[in-house]
Write a structure and sequence with these properties.
The complex is a heterotrimer of chains A (300), B (221) and C (353). Chain A is α/β, with parallel strands linked by helices and 300 residues long. Chain A is 35% helix and 21% strand. The chains are: A alpha/beta (300), B alpha+beta (221), C alpha/beta (353).
Chain lengths: 300, 221, 353
């Protein structure tokens, strides 16, 4: 079975210049088959991405990459709901990834993707969604290997995708912790989250790095890194491997993952190369290993 | 208020004796264990809810009494009274809960909310929090009918038993201790009203006294 | 011209009369109360609950705490007791079935149906689908863990699984709730008192990131098995697994280290980054919730003791039965049992966000 490398939606609030440069470079240089686009974290950021969305899509498609529109994680007001509906309906470039039940409702009966923010914890949920038109399902971040194995064995026509690199989204709130930390109110937040390109670090009171906050979203401080588990995942039947965009050498990161997927070198070698590329980052694979998410376990 | 209630307890002759004599310890231990036995006979659910902790020991520390209770979690719950801390710790308790006797007693009866007690820092815990939570839930999960389930002790123990059990008097003191926490929230307007009321009551009382005196003087003269 | 004058007293009585007439003509809010144990169930029923919600003693419910919850036999007794006093019983089967182990969740549904519960509270798509096919007549409520926060999601659950009632996430404002009611006419149940989830429920893995156990996977958040308290001089440190969640000075109320209610350092300073350790209390806005179309109010706290259940149920019963007169007293009684002993109306008023 062929293994595909995908680039998840950008979670952070980068300025448009940086976003264009980033995706152009991905289009030109990254060995990635599929790119998810869309502002999924905060509806206040969406208007900034909108004007360049088509340009980015065309550029990525010209480079031979599939482009999928990814919907908001948390939809509350009718305005957000209507915006989401409009964007889904206006998307003429292929598939849409649903990250909220409302989006699933818009997409019922049409081929679509299920994002990792939809709770697919068991075979029945997976089968139900497949019956409704899901053709690719990205599994929730906290699923352990045992669940992934059980799900991939379920009689199922959908392809399974899993995030294998990047900080893991852990929670979303109606309240903006990013604005709170800067003493601002959500309604007048000045999009302060744009200051932290990989999220704002959250430390415990004894200075231990713990989480990062990205607007309404809270992520892990550690970077999920399942490069050592790629071969096992391939054998389990997972066929799409998601990298989450960060302010780092994403093209090089993609090459390392591609090489391990193609068995050019071992996962351990890939792990060492990622360490060299991101010397500041701490990696984790705890969720996969049925442990606390921050834990990082080697072989054995 | 808490210290007052504690003090008044410790001044009772019963307790001042009880807390010092080994014989009294033995007596109290027997008393507690008989009570526990009876409760468990009527409420087998307690042991069932604690089944995953069998073999572990809980240490109960009273901040206002000079002895400790060890509670090994078994199919049948029995306590051991230990006079000093080092000996209590030697049994390597899995968890420790510490508070005043009243608070623990109230908690045991499900009359006081354990979380509230903890939030106000009147109760502190050490070691395995899960065991304490489980015990709290297990005890909280039964409604102990003290008369039916427990009151049937041997004749000779009845006076002692009643004395131990007769904590009801102090409940009101306990509650007034809780009031201090309420003050800074919603009760302050009520308190102001009460202050006013009690002030005017005082004034009335003063006037009454004055009037009485005047009347008496009037009668005399 | 003679202007009719009324004394303040008369006006007050007229107002009261009109209000009670309005109240009498619309069905009262259903008071849905937590019961972690059979004794708490009895207390909730005795103190005036219209319905109690419970869970089985395993990972099928989101309060899978040590020593808590019901065996099937205990539930049967509880249902008999509640039904004799015209109180309904709802069973929360609101975690997400583990792949390869769905039988545990199916057994819970089987028992719930067999024991004739009044409704099951579900969150998992797989389980909703299974329940809809297997027990079409079993009344389904959508758990807050499903986090249905908008009109379209609610329509989906209505259409796909015939879900009758939606327990709304604790992130919506009163006007958003009114809008949802207006557009879906679903039965809406909202949280009225107790712990406040600041994160979208059922979509939070903070707890499993720190401990390996989360509400979705194990039915616990910030589990007691991973909680430790350390004394450091006068300070009390609360930890969850490896992580310090809070440090309390001697004058501060302590708190359970629920992850999202912790104090952390962000942007260089320590703060309650996500939420202060406060408790939700809507007793002052019950009329607004009712006017918004809410049909039932829910008290959080199956993990809290009987004392808590009795106190909160009594207070809310009084407030519902006598909306004018009882506002002050329940609030004062409730504040002592609140987490952190302070209260908020949370997201229901917009300023919270």
């Amino acid at each position: 079975m062929k293994s595909f490398l995908t680039l998840g939606p950008l979670l952070f609030n980068w300025d448009i210049k940086k976003i264009r440069e980033f995706y152009f470079k991905i289009a030109d240089e990254a060995p990635i088959e599929c790119v998810y686009l869309g502002e999924i974290v905060c509806s206040k950021r969406a208007p900034f991405l909108e004007p360049v969305l088509q340009e980015l899509t065309e550029r990525l498609k010209q480079a031979g990459k599939e482009v999928i529109y990814s919907t908001s994680v948390l939809i509350e007001s009718d305005k957000e709901l209507e915006n989401s509906r409009t964007r889904v309906q206006a998307w003429a470039n292929g598939l849409v990834e649903a990250n909220d039940m409302a989006a699933i409702h818009f997409l019922l009966g049409k081929p679509h993707c299920i994002g990792p923010y939809i709770n697919v914890y068991n075979e029945e949920a997976l089968l139900y969604l497949t019956e409704q038109g899901a053709i690719r399902v990205t599994l929730p971040f906290e699923l352990p290997q045992t669940s992934i194995a059980a799900l991939s064995q379920a009689q199922n026509r959908a392809n399974l995708e899993l995030q294998v690199f990047g900080r893991q989204p852990l929670a979303i709130s109606a309240r903006c912790a990013h604005a709170r930390a800067y003493g601002l109110h959500k309604h007048n937040c000045q999009l302060i989250c744009g200051q932290d390109l990989d999220g704002m670090a959250v430390l415990t009171l004894n200075q231990q790095p713990f989480l990062v906050v990205n607007g309404l979203q809270t992520l892990s401080y550690t970077y999920c890194n399942l490069i050592r588990e790629l071969t096992e995942l391939q054998n389990l039947g997972v066929s799409y491997f998601r990298l989450s965009p960060h302010h780092t050498h994403m093209v090089e990161v993609a090459h390392v993952f591609r090489n391990v997927l193609d068995q050019k070198y071992e996962g351990e070698e890939g792990y060492r190369r990622l360490q060299a590329l991101l010397p500041e980052a701490s990696f984790s694979n705890g969720f996969y290993k049925s442990e606390a998410g921050y834990v990082n376990r080697g072989k054995g | 208020m808490h210290s007052k209630s504690t003090a008044s307890l410790l001044y009772t002759p019963f307790f001042s004796v009880l807390t010092k004599l080994p014989l009294a310890h033995a007596l109290l231990q027997t008393l507690i264990n008989r009570t526990l036995l009876k409760i468990q006979r009527h409420h087998p659910g307690i042991a069932e809810r604690l089944s995953e902790f069998h073999g572990k020991t809980l240490l109960i520390e009273f901040s206002d009494l000079p002895f400790y209770l060890l509670l090994p979690i078994e199919q049948s719950l029995k306590v051991r009274i230990i006079p000093n801390r080092s000996e209590a710790l030697a049994s390597e308790p899995f968890a420790t809960v510490r508070s005043e006797l009243y608070s623990l007693w109230q908690l045991f009866q499900g009359k006081l909310d354990g979380d509230a007690l903890f939030f106000s820092r009147d109760l502190s815990i050490d070691g395995n929090t899960e065991l304490i939570v489980a015990l709290r839930n297990a005890l909280d999960g039964v409604k102990i009918d003290w008369v039916k389930d427990v009151f049937n002790p041997p004749q000779i123990l009845i006076p002692l038993f009643k004395k131990t059990f007769n904590f009801g008097k102090f409940v009101s003191l306990q509650l007034s201790g809780d009031l201090k926490r309420i003050q800074n929230t919603v009760l302050s307007p009520v308190h102001k009203e009460l202050d006013k009321l009690s002030h005017s009551t005082d004034q009335l009382a003063e006037r009454m006294t004055a009037l009485e005196k005047q009347t008496k003087r009037g009668v005399r003269s | 011209m003679c202007v009719p004058t009324q004394s303040a007293e008369t006006r007050k009585y007229i107002k009261l009369f009109i209000q009670s007439a309005i109240v009498m003509n619309t069905p009262s809010l259903e008071l849905v109360c937590p019961a972690g144990t059979p004794a708490a169930l009895k207390d909730a029923v005795d103190h005036g609950a219209d319905a109690v919600y419970v869970g089985f003693r395993n990972e099928t419910n989101a309060r899978n705490f040590p020593g808590l919850n019901f065996s099937a036999d205990e539930l049967a007794e509880g249902i008999t007791y509640a039904h004799a006093k015209s109180c309904k019983v709802f069973v929360a089967i609101n975690t997400f079935a583990r792949a390869g182990a769905s039988h545990l969740w199916h057994q819970a549904l089987f028992d719930a149906e067999r024991l004739k519960v009044d409704a099951v509270i579900l969150a998992d798509l797989g389980l909703l689908h299974y329940c809809h096919r297997t027990y079409p007549n079993l009344r389904k409520h959508l758990s807050v863990q499903a986090s249905a926060s908008n009109v379209e999601s609610i329509r989906f659950y209505q259409k796909a699984f015939n879900v009758k009632r939606m327990v709304l996430p604790r992130v919506l404002t009163v006007s958003e709730i009114a809008n949802i009611y207006h557009k879906t006419h679903a039965e809406l149940e909202v949280f009225a008192f107790g712990g406040l989830c600041v994160m979208a429920e059922g979509r939070c893995a903070l707890s499993s990131y720190a401990t390996g156990k989360s509400p979705n996977t194990s039915g616990v958040c910030s589990p007691a098995s991973h909680v430790h308290y350390e004394k450091q001089g006068e300070k009390l440190i609360s930890k969850l697994g490896e992580f310090t969640i809070n440090v309390f000075e001697s004058h501060e109320s302590a708190g359970y280290p629920t992850l999202c209610k912790g104090r952390f350092i962000a942007n260089g300073k320590p703060l309650y980054l996500f939420e202060e350790p406060v408790s939700l209390n809507t007793i002052s806005i019950l009329d607004k919730l009712k006017a918004a179309g809410v049909c039932a109010i829910k008290i959080e706290g199956r993990q809290r003791g009987r004392a808590y259940v009795a106190e909160v149920v009594r207070s809310f019963r009084a407030a519902l039965d006598n909306p004018e007169g009882s506002l002050l007293i329940p609030a004062t009684q409730l504040s002592t049992i609140s987490e952190g002993q302070t209260e908020t109306v949370g997201s229901y008023e917009r300023g919270w966000r």
